[in-house]
Amino acid sequence: MAARLDEMDRKILAELQEDAAQSLDEIAKKVGSSKTPVWNRIRRMKDSGVILRQTVLLEAEALGLEACFFVLIRTSEHEAEWQAKFLRALRERPEVMEAHRLAGEIDYILKVRVQNARAYDVFYQALISEVRIFNVTALLSMEEIKSTTALPL
């Protein structure tokens, strides 16, 4: 069920998504409020689960992680035991930035960030040694056109 948010909540969330390191005073000024009401709204949105956590975004290429692969996985296994083992393997791999279970011909899609193709192969070999997978297709992203963590408000 969607949280009940008013226009002020949405303005505050937009500011936090833009730069969560802003002071409460800065946010309050930008949204046309004062510090205490903004703090109360942020606390309420944290308590209700709208705000999950605050973090920092890093530049992958500056850290040597120049290759982004989208990995399409098809499996012939659909038992709970296999799925638990597969999900555990994904959670233990820091290279996996995102993982989604899909409807359609492809069962899972992963976003994997590594240094290069050789590092992807090391990831791939480790994954298939842990879990039986029917088919894996890796697509190398040539250019990131858009990437955002901001949700549309």
From TrEMBL:
What cellular component terms from Gene Ontology apply here? Answer: cytosol
| TM annotation in the entry | none
Asked whether the UniProt record includes DNA-binding among its keywords, one would answer yes
Pfam families (UniProt xref): AsnC_trans_reg (PF01037), HTH_AsnC-type (PF13404)
The record's Gene Ontology biological-process terms are:
response to amino acid
InterPro entries, per database record: AsnC-type_HTH_dom, Dimeric_a/b-barrel, Tscrpt_reg_AsnC-like, Tscrpt_reg_AsnC/Lrp_C, Tscrpt_reg_HTH_AsnC-type_CS, WH-like_DNA-bd_sf, WH_DNA-bd_sf
At the top level, the lineage of the source is Bacteria
SUPFAM superfamilies (UniProt xref): Dimeric alpha+beta barrel, Winged helix' DNA-binding domain
**Which keywords fit this entry according to its UniProt record?**
DNA-binding, Transcription, Transcription regulation
Where the record annotates domain HTH asnC-type, the positions are 5-66
Q: Does the keyword DNA-binding apply?
A: yes
One Gene Ontology molecular-function label: sequence-specific DNA binding
Q: Quote the protein name from its UniProt record.
A: Lrp/AsnC family transcriptional regulator
- State the species of origin: Szabonella alba
